[in-house]
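Hi support team,

I'm filing this because I wasn't sure whether my run with flavin mononucleotide finished correctly. The job status page said complete, but I'd like someone to confirm that the output block is well-formed before I use it downstream. Pasting the exact inputs I used:
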Amino acid sequence: MNVLDAINTRRSVRKWQKRAVAKTTLNKILNAGRMAPSPLNSQPWHFSVIVDRKMIKTLAASAQHGAFAQSATVLIVVTIEQSAKVDTWLHEHDQHIYSGVCAIQNMWLAAWSLGIGGCWITIDRKATEKLLGVPRSHVLLGSLALGHPTGKVHKHLDDDRRPLSDMVTFDSFR
Ligand SMILES: Cc1cc2nc3c(=O)[nH]c(=O)nc-3n(C[C@H](O)[C@H](O)[C@H](O)COP(=O)(O)O)c2cc1C
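And here is everything the job wrote out:
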């Protein structure tokens, strides 16, 4: 699957088979996260890979919009090291934090291209920090629930997204 096909066909998948994701596949997904861009190549992210059923269930239960994630076979929790090796100006602009979003999107697209369905799950900050023992120096970004999709994954509808003309301007904001 080429990059544009992956971008245009990817959907949020919220139902999964019980079958585990193979280690080699999981490694490819994690490596796609590793290859994400970051300011000054600081690579400030940490990927906590959760495969323990009980832990996945606990995190899913704490997520206001993610109870379904309890049936995911893998949950990748992404946190960012706040003292990332970037300069003050980049830090003031939170650029290190945003690079973690690039990592999540890379992993999501890589998973999709490998036949693995995923959904970004907004997990509860306090519950996650406590369960995983996230160091104080890290900020929680979110998580990616993954697994082999079950049921039909619907294609995007034409009106799923606002039209380009609604979101793009040239040369000035208006
Ligand atoms: C930052 C972010 C947070 C999200 N949090 C949730 C969530 O907590 N639960 C959920 O079901 N989907 C979540 N999503 C997925 C969006 O609902 C989904 O991407 C959007 O509806 C578009 O659908 P699509 O991914 O199939 O194109 C999140 C997506 C992003 C980018």
